[in-house]
Amino acid sequence: MAVDMATQQALVPTTYTPAESLDQSARPIEDWVLDEAVLMAVRKGRIRVKVWVSDTGVVDGAELLAAEPPGDWAQQAIQPLRMTLMHPGMKDGRAVPSTVVVEIASEDQGYR
Prior knowledge:
- By secondary structure, this protein is α+β, with helices and mostly antiparallel strands.
- The chain has helices at 5-11, 36-42, 73-77; strands at 17-18, 27-28, 44-53, 59-68, 86-87, 89-91, 94-96, 98-107.
- The two termini are 22 Å apart.
């Protein structure tokens, strides 16, 4: 799935460090902000998402990489993801813009 135009523009001037190159990857302060109604309708599923996080912990963008079962539900479910409050990625003791790939899954007991 393509990254939207606003996200592309936001990503151009900044270099984002992949999570595997960090001392500590970006992570939510609490939980991922997702469309819970969409997720509950699917019940069992799995979403794989690439997330761009600024050095201040703002989610700059998200790209759906995979979803099981396939369908539009996953793109709808991640729409509010940009509202997630994050701890930024850390490299050499300082916060840096970074990317992280996450998998959010459910087995009838909620998504996480």
